[in-house]
Amino acid sequence: MSTTTTTAPTASELIARAEKLVPLLRERASEAENLRRQLDETIEDFKSAGFFTAMVPAEHGGSALGLSEFADLVRVLSRGDASAGWIAAFLISHSTLLYRYGAEAQGEFFAEKPYGLTVAAAGPPGAATPVEGGYSLSGTWRFGSGVLHAEWAALSAMSPDGPLSVVVPVSETEIVDTWHVPGMKATGSNDIKVEGLFVPRHRTVSFPTYSSEHNEGAALTEYPLIGYPMNRTLNLIHSAVAIGTADAALELFAGGLGKRVRMQTQQKQIDEPITRQTYGKAWDLVQVAGLQLHDALAHTDRVYGRHSTGPASLADRARINLGLTGSGQKAFQAIDLVVRAAGASIFRTGDPLERIVRDTQVMRNHAAVDFETMASVAGGALLGVGIGDYAEPMF
């Protein structure tokens, strides 16, 4: 396995580098949207900034960011462009999926460098048929965000032995061009297809074990996040991107206010009390969203970290899940406020706020920010009546 003694950038250094990229990501957003993928130059910029080792264990030369630090990095990049922040977040964090495997698999994943650019797709699960030395894998997986830049694909599959996580080289898959959507176009979230692909046994693992704190890789590293349940390190991404996008909406709205005059009154909009009130409300929502996200992540560390005193209760998980989904919802509400106050001209194709409208319409339909469903389920947990038929491993 690749190891290095190079000093990794700190969280504050990574965030400062992300801040410098914000104007460039905004400048490239239109071209990336037309290409329906991130520019190669952007991926190279992420690499040069050290982002791809941000969630690599320190003993392998990584920055080993904590959850809150990772969320802050994603938020800044998403202020540049939602699709860029989304892809960065997945490519950064998905190395942790590879570090959940055992030593033999890690030796393959990290033979040349301590990170692996990885796409993850869970549904619908493929079919894994046992063969000598491993499995024959077939299936088509949807929504492969980052597949156009990835080296490895972490996929789910059903086998006679139960559900599996399997990892295959992207070069051995077919990328099916299905990502024709109104928003988040530059994520290139296409389908992934394989037919009868051999996967050696060391690149397969029981999914319930893999996704839990008992995964093989947790014993091989000092990086605490590898020992968290998988959904606790990934589900924050969607809200962090939403909050960063809301930050951008507030900036763009404020930047254009001085030019806008209401036709009926010939008064500058920035001088209208209702405009100032709208901006204040939106700013407040984004502030609360950020605080709520950080509270959820701090509670995650208390519950799942190395100093945890016991298994997470349903109430603990309810607090975390409501914090993640609720923070995303507040970010979307803030965007809605400033968009409605910004006037019709923002809907001209190419206006950055027009892109944010389309991006957030797509983002808010992701299950990870489905606050209405989560409020119902988590409310049951907090009231002590359970979570009904909601799948407990996903709660």
Any descriptors?
395 residues, alpha+beta, Butyryl-CoA Dehydrogenase, subunit A, domain 2, Butyryl-Coa Dehydrogenase, subunit A, domain 1, 3 domains
Question: What would your notes on this structure say?
Answer:
It comes from Arthrobacter jinronghuae. Belongs to the HpaH/HsaA monooxygenase family. Residues 15-49 form a coiled coil. This is Acyl-CoA dehydrogenase family protein. Residues 236-370 form the Acyl-CoA dehydrogenase C-terminal domain. This protein has 395 residues and is α+β, with helices and mostly antiparallel strands. The protein folds into 3 domains: 11-98, Butyryl-Coa Dehydrogenase, subunit A, domain 1 (Orthogonal Bundle); 118-205, Butyryl-CoA Dehydrogenase, subunit A, domain 2; 235-388, Butyryl-CoA Dehydrogenase, subunit A, domain 3 (Up-down Bundle). The chain is 47% helix and 16% strand. The protein has 13 helices and 9 strands. The chain has helices at 11-35, 40-49, 67-80, 82-93, 95-98, 103-109, 207-210, 231-234, 236-257, 273-304, 314-341, 352-363, 371-382; strands at 118-131, 134-144, 152-159, 162-169, 174-176, 190-200, 204-206, 261-262, 267-268. It has a 7-stranded mixed sheet with strand order 5-6-2-1-3-4-7. Helix 4 (82-93) packs antiparallel against helix 9 (236-257), helix 9 (236-257) packs antiparallel against helix 12 (352-363) and helix 11 (314-341) packs antiparallel against helix 12. The mean pLDDT is 93.
